[in-house]
Amino acid sequence: MRSTGEVMGMDYEFSGAFAKAQIAAGQKLTLSGTVFLSLNDLTKRHLGEIGRGFRDLGFNIIATSGTAKVRQLEGIPAEPVLKIHEGRPDARDMLKNGQIQVMVITSSGDALDSKDGIQLRRLALAYKVPIITTVDGARATMDAIKSLKDKSIETLALQDYFQTADVSQTCKQWHKPHLKDSFFFM
Questions:
Q1: 54: part of which helix (H) or strand (E)?
Q2: Average pLDDT, whole number, for the chain?
Q3: What contacts 24+ positions apart, CB below 8 Å, involve 109-117?
Q4: Burial class of 112 by CB neighbour count within 10 A (0 to 12, 13 to 18, 19+)
Q5: Residue 96 lies in domain
Q6: Cα distance between residue 14 and residue 18, in whole Å
Q7: What distance in Å separates the CA atoms of residue 113 and residue 70, rounded to the nearest whole number?
Q8: What is the CATH number of the domain that holds 80?
Q9: Residue (of 74, 62, 68, 69) closest to 36 by Cα position
Q10: Per residue in 117-133, pLDDT tens?
Q11: Number of neighbouring beta carbons within 10 Å of residue 77
Q12: For residue 138, is it within any domain?
């Protein structure tokens, strides 16, 4: 796992495990603030779910102009923000000023969108702002933030998660009794 930088988070629930993995990867999952939304046309149908989810967690919503229009049609207000090529102040300025705590950007693949997205992702990395690039990632992040709000992070040894596992019986089934002393779960 060292060569590519993977991390692991364990919990009894996915939301807690995802939160722990994000923290271990150096992502700062903030519990409040402003979320920036810029979704491509293929993922805009999920705007209601994502916008309401972050709003219900207490976040303010800002979005690129097209995304903001769809947001308002869905009944969730979103402050419009200029795209990079549309003038200033834009999302870069807001990132630099600490006005954005979470970014949800799904790329459409066109050259201009891709160029803007690359600039925003690089800047967000520099300022340690979590970047979410998929709808599933947005859902997982919302669940993780809710989990962090609802309960504190609990640290357990790997053995605590599997204390009911009968290691000696498992090793007998494998017909390799010597594995008893080195049995582990991944």
A1: helix 47-56
A2: 81
A3: 109/40, 112/85, 113/40, 115/84, 116/83, 116/84, 116/85, 117/38
A4: exposed
A5: 14-150
A6: 6
A7: 18
A8: 3.40.50.1380
A9: 62
A10: 888 889 999 999 999 99
A11: 13
A12: yes
Kindly report the number of other CB atoms within 10 A of residue 173's CB atom. 9
> Does residue 158 sit within a domain?
no
Read off the pLDDT of residues 28-53 as tens digits, 9 standing for 90 and up. 899 999 999 988 888 888 888 999 99
The tokens of 30 are what? 């903030």
Pick from 6, 65, 39, 49: nearest CA to 143: 49
Q: What is the layout of strands, in order, in the sheet containing 59-64?
A: 79-81, 59-64, 33-38, 102-105, 131-132
- Tens of pLDDT, residues 73-131: 577 788 888 888 888 888 999 999 999 999 999 876 665 567 778 888 899 999 999 99
Work out how many domains the chain is built from and give that number: 1
CA dihedral defined by 101, 81, 44, 72, rounded to 10 degrees? 100
Contact residues for 129 (Cβ-Cβ < 8 A; gap 6+):
28, 95, 100, 101, 102, 103
3-state class of 42 per DSSP? Answer: coil
Structure tokens belonging to residue 4: 């590519």
Say what the pLDDT of residue 99 is.
Answer: 96
Q: Is residue 116 part of a domain?
A: yes
Q: Which two tokens stand for residue 27?
A: 């992502």
Q: Is residue 79 a part of any domain in this protein?
A: yes
